[in-house]
From TrEMBL:
<dbReference type="GO" id="GO:0006357">
    <property type="term" value="P:regulation of transcription by RNA polymerase II"/>
</dbReference>
<comment type="similarity">
    <text>Belongs to the Mediator complex subunit 4 family.</text>
</comment>
<keyword id="KW-0010">Activator</keyword>
<dbReference type="InterPro" id="IPR019258">
    <property type="entry name" value="Mediator_Med4"/>
</dbReference>
<dbReference type="GO" id="GO:0070847">
    <property type="term" value="C:core mediator complex"/>
</dbReference>
<comment type="function">
    <text>Component of the Mediator complex, a coactivator involved in the regulated transcription of nearly all RNA polymerase II-dependent genes. Mediator functions as a bridge to convey information from gene-specific regulatory proteins to the basal RNA polymerase II transcription machinery. Mediator is recruited to promoters by direct interactions with regulatory proteins and serves as a scaffold for the assembly of a functional preinitiation complex with RNA polymerase II and the general transcription factors.</text>
</comment>
<keyword id="KW-0539">Nucleus</keyword>
<keyword id="KW-0805">Transcription regulation</keyword>
<dbReference type="GO" id="GO:0016592">
    <property type="term" value="C:mediator complex"/>
</dbReference>
<comment type="subunit">
    <text>Component of the Mediator complex.</text>
</comment>
<keyword id="KW-0804">Transcription</keyword>
<dbReference type="GO" id="GO:0003712">
    <property type="term" value="F:transcription coregulator activity"/>
</dbReference>
<protein>
    <recommendedName>
        <fullName>Mediator of RNA polymerase II transcription subunit 4</fullName>
    </recommendedName>
</protein>
<dbReference type="Pfam" id="PF10018">
    <property type="entry name" value="Med4"/>
</dbReference>
Length: 121
């Protein structure tokens, strides 16, 4: 009988030890779940802000200034030795680059691209 009591007491101690271990691990899991939830919120906010910024950038990229195109064309011509037409002279009112009017009626300046170019012709 004493053996049975000792055996049961040993089992009870083992069960209590397992319960404590289970409780500690549950606390760790709760902490990790909380951290994971917070990380998910941060990632989803970053994703949302990134999508918003991307949409804004795409909307802004459709409109650009002709001065910016001229600045880049100047950089290209300066760096890659592109020349103006042979008949152009300094002081000539006709510019060796497209003016605002030329830019607006060109396919490059239109949002529709080639389709609007075909209607101009």
């Amino acid at each position: 009988m004493v053996r049975q009591v000792d055996f049961r007491y040993g089992k009870e101690e083992y069960i209590k030890k397992l319960d404590r271990s289970l409780f500690e691990r549950s606390e760790v899991l709760a902490e990790q779940t909380e951290k994971l939830t917070e990380a998910f919120k941060l990632v989803s906010n970053a994703h949302f802000n990134g999508q918003k910024a991307l949409k804004k950038a795409k909307a802004q990229s459709k409109s650009f200034e002709s001065e910016e195109v001229l600045r880049f064309s100047h950089l290209i011509s300066k760096n890659f030795s592109v020349a103006s037409p042979h008949f152009w002279q300094q002081g000539d009112p006709m510019r060796p680059y497209p003016t605002e009017l030329h830019f607006r009626i060109s396919t490059f300046g239109n949002a529709d691209g080639i389709v609007s170019f075909l209607f101009i012709l």
